[in-house]
Amino acid sequence: MLLVTGGAGYIGSHATRALAAAGHDVVVYDDLSEGFSDAVLGKPLVVGDILDTEKLQKTLKDHAVDAVLHFAARCYVGESMQKPDLYWRVNRDGTRSLLKAMAGAGVGKLVFSSTCAVYGVPDSVPMHEDTPHRPLSVYGETKAAMEGEIADSDVEAVVFRYFNAAGASSDAVLGERHDPETHLIPLALMAARDGATLTINGDDYPTPDGTCVRDYIHVMDLADAHVAGVQRLLAGNSGLTANLGSGRGYSVLEIVEAVRRVTGRPLATQVGPRRPGDPPALYARAERAESELGWRPQFTDIQVIVEHAWRALRD
Ligand SMILES: NC(=O)c1ccc[n+]([C@@H]2O[C@H](COP(=O)([O-])OP(=O)(O)OC[C@H]3O[C@@H](n4cnc5c(N)ncnc54)[C@H](O)[C@@H]3O)[C@@H](O)[C@H]2O)c1
Question: What pTM was estimated for this model as a whole?
Answer without folding.
Answer: 0.97
